[in-house]
TrEMBL record:
Summary of the function given for this chain in its UniProt record: Catalytic subunit of the poly(A)-nuclease (PAN) deadenylation complex, one of two cytoplasmic mRNA deadenylases involved in mRNA turnover. PAN specifically shortens poly(A) tails of RNA and the activity is stimulated by poly(A)-binding protein PAB1. PAN deadenylation is followed by rapid degradation of the shortened mRNA tails by the CCR4-NOT complex. Deadenylated mRNAs are then degraded by two alternative mechanisms, namely exosome-mediated 3'-5' exonucleolytic degradation, or deadenlyation-dependent mRNA decaping and subsequent 5'-3' exonucleolytic degradation by XRN1.
Any single Pfam family the record assigns to this protein: PAN2_N
Organism the protein comes from: Coniophora puteana (strain RWD-64-598)
Free-text remark on how the cofactor is bound: Binds 2 metal cations per subunit in the catalytic exonuclease domain.
Entry-linked SUPFAM superfamilies: Cysteine proteinases, Putative isomerase YbhE, Ribonuclease H-like
Gene Ontology terms describing biological process: mRNA processing; nuclear-transcribed mRNA poly(A) tail shortening
Name by which UniProt lists this protein: PAN2-PAN3 deadenylation complex catalytic subunit PAN2
Cofactor requirement: a divalent metal cation
GO molecular function terms attached to this record: metal ion binding; nucleic acid binding; poly(A)-specific ribonuclease activity
Coiled-coil parts of chain: none
InterPro entries per UniProt: PAN2 (IPR030843), PAN2-PAN3_catalytic_subunit (IPR050785), PAN2_N (IPR048841), PAN2_UCH_dom (IPR028881), Papain-like_cys_pep_sf (IPR038765), Ribonucl_H (IPR013520), RNaseH-like_sf (IPR012337), RNaseH_sf (IPR036397)
Position of the signal peptide: none
Catalytic activity: Exonucleolytic cleavage of poly(A) to 5'-AMP
Protein encoded by which gene: PAN2
Reported regulation of activity: Positively regulated by the regulatory subunit PAN3.
């Protein structure tokens, strides 16, 4: 072979019909063949220099083949579409095909360690694949999409779209972070890279005058330190580069126009050979044979041009691509010829026959792929058989009446196991254990599987929580973000000492807007009062998110990700420390902390609690604090120093397997817990005494008597090594497979965790001879399903439980009693402990909680708690209670609340058009109004929130932008915690709440009101047989003859309406007419569509009459609801609260004829709404600070034309809507009441 290349005859046999570009080329290293990729996504084998066509196969995607790599027994290829990369045998049979989740961007043309190839995807990842099986071995993220990959002897080089080449570790795919791992040879993009020995060659694009331009240089780098070397000039613009085999210093550079330059990179100054290909199009691909004797160039017209370095002998048949014959080419199998059949009318059809085969047919499915056999058809009922007739081999019979609608119908199987209270077909006798709550994990018992709330058309209130919990202990709902904390909340709720602190803290005047101890206390009170009714801890979860975000603890926030992507065991233990730290800080009233734990005789504790030296620590610290001294000893000079060490949470440390010459450590629970308390550590540092770099030994020193009343323990089970200590129980492997127990050997069948455990302290390097007993109160456990999704449950010992076993499992809203063995055993890896709470038995009766505050201050109901700086006095509707008005048990109060949306609901839309609610909208309390029995509000608070509001729901809440902002609100604005305390105080004082739809309101507020303290007009005006509940708006119209909620909802108006409905109910019930009236209401509701009918016309023209309407008396004070209606010529609007409501064409016509401003314009400071009536405008009434309006009307029964702009006095009666707060109508007609400076 000479150094110069000559032109050989091209191969033009790639295409039979029309020319297609040759998108990829590769010589076969062991056969006299070349493999070509086409524009349509097909790989074709061309044998010998004559280009005899052989095997062809598609690579998938139908797009051009981008890359081909050929080995001894495989062909690897992938297309431009990036559907996937595959490996085929040379006969065309596919071996494997890897399809990533995102499109492929590049695949390396060489391997690392003989069986690893690299690939990149469009979602900025680098993959390492097994070249033998196609399995993904590693995956690493990149900062840009990788377009070229190349293995060198010690690195993986990745060229990206941003023009950078980054060095990755070939074993892991991770980018190397040292300073020599990043270069940018081309500013716009990289066209190709090649490696040879320690050299890296690159070609690409650069910017010239704002446009991408082919870089006329081949850049060269030393791979060892990524140092640039002198570039190789190529003025025609390099498009392809290839390294010559067996001549590592020679490089072939090719342009799109067919100019080929063979250059020696070690001596660029020497003359190099140039060749110009004879092509009428442009070059699209190149390849070099295994010995460099042939170079192939594919062009856009479908031809393959050849350059050869062999000597010309005139005989093409003897020329070989690789210089040797190699393996014979594999040809496609030729099917056997079909035998000729002479076809006549008598030829039997079975002459064709079945082909002979000695392998299983594709239709012979294995049992794993075969579906279950179809059930046999149902038997024909005997009453049909007895009447059946036959005609022409067809049997028929009339279908009996009793079978109509039942046959030939698909049997509906219940796939959804959720139960709804509105479902009439539900079977009350079915037990929860007979249902599978989650079929994704067969090895997890049903009780422990993840449960989800389903949503019917009636919302979450329709979900039958009672089916999943038949105990007197309440569960917590799961559809709230950060509800993973439910399990820890339940453990703390049933830890009496911690729960006692929470209940006490809510009675204090806590200044913090977000306080976890307050929210924990509110949840504890709610769970305590609910007694088995499901609850939700949305306020606690909201505070968790806000505080974690404020402290940049973003890993504690649940953003609603997939359960199999979250390690909830690690998450809840991190949150446990976060929570305890906050409880300690928020409950600290230093120096006025009460002394809960009396000081012992210990020198450590006695000094800490000495009344002459230091006040008591925070209550949580007194209960959970491990107050020890950390003793540090230098092993070189034996110097000893001590320092105070306070911790609230103990992390368990598991012993490693000892060496043969080491003592065997204790491996039972008590021994591991005690060693975790002492926490022996060793580390290296410079000793301040001997001034040498020495090893230090550190351990805690704490006497037994100073161990805390409550031990909060993080189990720290993060792997199989630590989990095997817990594995054991009645059906599991023995706990402690090696090692010893403190008192006796742990054998098969013995649990690792016991209900009670004895531990001792550690003083002066030895165990304290005294021991104390701790009792397990509860624990948080992670449950991991078969699909690796996990969730948390609580297993607690309920104090004073009236059941066979005191142990209960709280799986969110599923609560069930279990045995002690089931509660404390860990039979498999699906059940992993996370947090444990243990209570010291001997000190429990000695705790003194008498110094803690107990009971809310009732004066909060008498105080103005406004925090708005721009409150409008004219908008104040409530009068705070006087001290003598404080409610007593049985006091009737009316209540209504309005809410805003903090998060939109998440809905899954299916392909069949149906949808499913994944998570409902998260609502937050925005306004609450509580009225005296006489109808006068004493609470009318808007609720301050610092969260972003996604929807004010103004149509239903009446809340607008700025109403909840202390700087902008014109209303009485109060913190949520203060409002909660007011409501909590009303519940505790035995008030009876009257309202409409209160169960949902109380759920969202996070307060439980005993059923005997609730009178809900939804239930009063309800016929169970009709399965229809009536709206407040409809009841107000049909029972009270008033129209409410015309434009917006108003909580004062709604609460007052509910109070009037209750009074009407009492009146009708007293006369024995309520049942008859309720039937009439339902009949009328069905006729009107369960809503007030539109106002009907009663006349024509502009004449009309003022007609009074009567309703039950409500209060007789200026706060009473005005009654009456204005009936116009073509419409009417109800007068309520000084507001003319309704969408009335009559009033629109009246406005037009009278010369009033058009709809939507301002009259004084009141507003005429576009619907045609007088709306509440800015202040909620027909009032204003301007001129107001006057008009002339006539008495009932008379008609006169309306003149001019209706200026003047009323004819039938005089009314002046003055410039003040606006006049209001009184009850009935003939009364006179003042309203601001207006009058009637």
């Amino acid at each position: 072979m000479s150094a110069a290349y000559r032109t050989a005859p091209p191969i033009a046999t790639l295409h039979d019909t029309f020319a297609q570009p040759v998108s990829a080329l590769c010589f076969d290293p062991v056969s006299d063949s070349i493999w070509a990729g086409t524009e349509t996504g097909t790989v074709v084998a061309l044998h010998s220099i004559q280009g005899i066509r052989g095997v062809s196969f598609p690579v998938g995607g139908g797009h051009p083949v981008r890359h081909i790599s050929v080995g001894n027994n495989f062909v690897r290829a992938y297309g431009v579409a990036g559907v996937g990369v595959g490996s085929w045998a040379k006969g065309g049979m596919n071996k494997w095909f890897y399809q990533p989740t995102a499109s492929l961007a590049a695949v390396s043309n060489n391997t690392y360690a003989t069986n690893v190839i690299a690939a990149s995807t469009e979602d900025q990842h680098v993959l390492l694949l097994n070249s033998m099986t196609g399995a993904a071995l590693r995956q690493a993220a990149t900062s840009s999409v990788v377009t070229h990959l190349q293995f060198s002897s010690s690195a993986l080089l990745a060229a990206s779209r941003d023009g950078f080449i980054r060095v990755h570790d070939p074993r892991s795919g991770m980018r190397r972070e040292d300073g020599e791992s990043l270069i940018q040879p081309h500013t716009t993009g990289i066209e190709d890279i090649q490696t040879s020995g320690n050299y890296l060659f690159t070609i690409g694009w650069s910017m010239r005058r704002g446009h991408a331009f082919p870089d006329p240089l081949v850049k060269m780098y030393d791979i060892r330190n990524m140092r640039p070397l002198p570039p190789i000039p190529f003025s025609d613009g390099p498009a392809f580069i290839n390294v010559l085999p067996k001549q590592s210093s020679s490089l072939i550079i090719t342009s799109n126009q067919g100019l080929v330059n063979v250059v020696d990179v070690s001596d660029v100054a020497n003359a190099s050979s140039f060749n110009q290909l004879e092509t009428g199009s442009y070059i699209t691909s190149t390849a070099v044979s295994s010995n460099g004797s042939y170079v192939a160039f594919g062009d856009a017209s479908g031809a393959i041009h050849l350059l050869t370095a062999t000597e010309e002998n005139g005989d093409q048949e003897t020329e070989l691509f690789n210089g040797f014959e190699g393996q014979p080419a594999e040809w496609a199998d030729v099917p056997e010829p079909v035998p000729e059949i002479t076809w006549t009318d008598e030829t039997p059809l079975n002459t064709i026959g079945m082909p002979y085969y000695n392998e299983l047919l594709l239709s012979s499915w294995t049992p794993a792929l075969a579906t279950s056999p179809c059930p046999p058809p149902t038997k024909i009922p005997p009453q049909i058989l007895s009447t059946m007739k036959t005609n022409d081999n067809v049997a028929y019979a009339a279908l009996p009446k009793e079978l109509r609608g039942r046959r030939n119908r698909v049997v509906q199987t219940q796939t959804r196991e959720a139960r709804f209270r509105s479902d009439k077909r539900r079977n009350e006798s079915i037990d929860m254990e007979s249902l599978s709550l989650d079929d994704s994990a067969e090895e997890v018992p049903r009780l422990y599987r993840k449960v989800e709330i389903e949503y019917s058309k009636f919302g979450v209130e329709d979900f039958d929580f009672g089916f999943y919990n038949k105990t007197p202990y309440s569960g917590l709902e799961t559809h709230i973000l950060n509800s993973y904390t439910n399990a820890l909340v339940q453990v703390l709720n049933y830890s009496p000492t911690v729960a006692r602190l929470g209940r006490s803290h809510i009675t204090t005047n806590c200044p913090r807007e977000q306080c976890l101890l307050c929210e924990l206390g509110f949840v504890v009170r709610m769970l305590e009062d609910a007694r088995g009714t499901n609850c939700q801890s949305s306020n606690f979860c909201r505070a968790v998110g806000l505080l974690a975000h404020a402290q940049n603890q973003l890993e504690l926030i649940d953003y609603g990700g997939e359960p199999n992507e979250i390690d909830y065991a690690h998450k809840i233990q991190a949150f446990h420390r976060f929570l305890v730290d906050h409880l300690c800080l928020e409950g600290n009233a230093f120096p006025h902390n009460p002394e809960i734990v009396k000081p012992s005789n210990s020198p450590f504790q006695s000094e800490l609690h000495s009344p002459t030296q230091s006040p008591a620590a925070a209550p949580i610290t007194q209960l959970l604090g491990v107050d020890a001294k950390n003793v540090v000893v230098c092993t070189n000079c034996k110097a000893v120093r001590e320092k105070e060490n306070m911790t609230h949470v103990v992390d368990m440390i598991y012993p490693r397997k000892p060496l043969p010459n080491e003592p065997i450590p204790a491996t039972d629970f008590a021994g591991i817990l005690q060693s975790s308390l002492v926490r022996q550590l060793s580390y290296k540092a410079t000793c301040q005494t001997c001034k040498s770099f020495a090893t230090f030994l550190s351990q805690r020193s704490i006497p037994t008597r100073d161990l805390p009343p409550v031990l909060a323990v993080n189990a720290s089970v993060y792997g199989e090594d630590s989990l095997r200590f817990w594995m054991g129980g009645p059906n599991g492997e023995p706990a402690g497979a090696w090692g010893r127990a403190r008192n006796e050997g742990v054998g098969r069948g013995r649990r690792f965790l016991e209900e009670r455990v004895e531990i001792c302290g550690h003083v002066e390097g030895v165990d304290d001879p005294d021991t104390v007993e701790y009792e397990l109160r509860g624990m948080v456990v992670q449950i991991t399903a078969k699909d690796k999704s996990s969730h948390l449950i609580a297993i607690v010992k309920v104090p004073d439980a009236r059941s066979e076993s005191p142990w209960y499992v709280f799986n969110d809203f599923v609560v069930r009693n279990v045995s002690e063995d089931e509660a404390l055993s860990f039979p498999g890896a699906w059940k992993v402990p996370s947090i444990l709470y243990l209570e010291r038995v001997d000190i429990r009766p000695k705790l003194d909680f008498s110094g803690l505050p107990d009971g809310l201050d009732p004066s909060i109901l008498c105080q103005d708690t406004n925090i708005s700086i721009n409150r409008d006095q004219s908008l104040i509707q409530h009068e705070c209670l006087r001290f003598e008005e404080l409610p007593t048990p049985g006091t009737l109060v009316a209540i209504d609340a309005e809410f805003v949306s903090m998060q939109q609901e998440e809905i899954e839309y299916r392909s069949d058009g149906t949808n499913r609610v994944l998570r409902p909208a998260r609502l937050s309390l925005a306004r609450v109004s509580v009225l005296r029995e006489g109808g006068v509000p004493f609470i009318d608070d808007h609720i301050h929130t610092s969260e972003a509001i996604v929807d004010y729901l103004t149509e239903f809440s009446g809340i607008r932008y700025g109403d909840l902002d202390p700087r902008l609100s014109r209303h009485t604005l109060t913190p949520l915690k203060v409002v909660y305390k007011k409501l909590r105080l009303l519940v505790d004082r035995g008030c009876i709440f009257i309202g409409h739809g209160l169960s949902k309101d109380f759920r969202i507020i996070n307060i439980f009101v005993p059923p005997e303290q609730v009178i809900d007009t939804v239930d009063l005006y309800f016929l169970r047989s009709r399965q229809r509940r009536l709206s407040l708006r409809f009841l107000a119209w049909i029972m009270l003859n008033i129209r409410i909620q015309g434009i917006e909802h108003d909580s004062v108006e709604d609460a007052r309406t509910a109070l009037s409905l209750f009074q009407a109910y009492q009146e009708l019930e007293g006369r024995g007419e309520f049942d008859r009236k309720l039937d009439e209401i339902y009949r009328e509701g069905k006729a009107t569509g369960w809503r007030p009918p539109p106002v009907e016309a009663v006349g024509s023209g502009l004449a009309g009459a003022m007609t009074p309407t009567t309703s039950p008396q409500r209060g007789g004070t200026p706060h009473g609801t005005p009654q009456g209606s204005f009936v116009g010529g073509t419409g009417s609007g109800a007068v309520s609260g000084g507001v003319v409501l309704g969408r009335t064409p009559g009033l629109r016509a009246l406005q037009a004829q009278a010369g009033f401003p058009s709809a939507g314009q301002q009259i004084g400071h009141s507003r005429v709404f576009g619907s045609g009536g007088f709306g509440p405008g800015q202040g909620g009434g027909v009032f204003g600070g301007g001129q107001g309006m006057q008009g002339s009307f006539v008495a009932p029964g008379q008609q006169i034309p309306v003149m001019g702009a209706l200026h003047g006095a009323f004819a039938g009666f005089n009314a002046n809507f003055g410039p003040g707060g606006g006049g209001v109508f009184g009850n009935g007609w003939g009364g006179s009441e003042d309203g601001g400076s207006g009058r009637r």
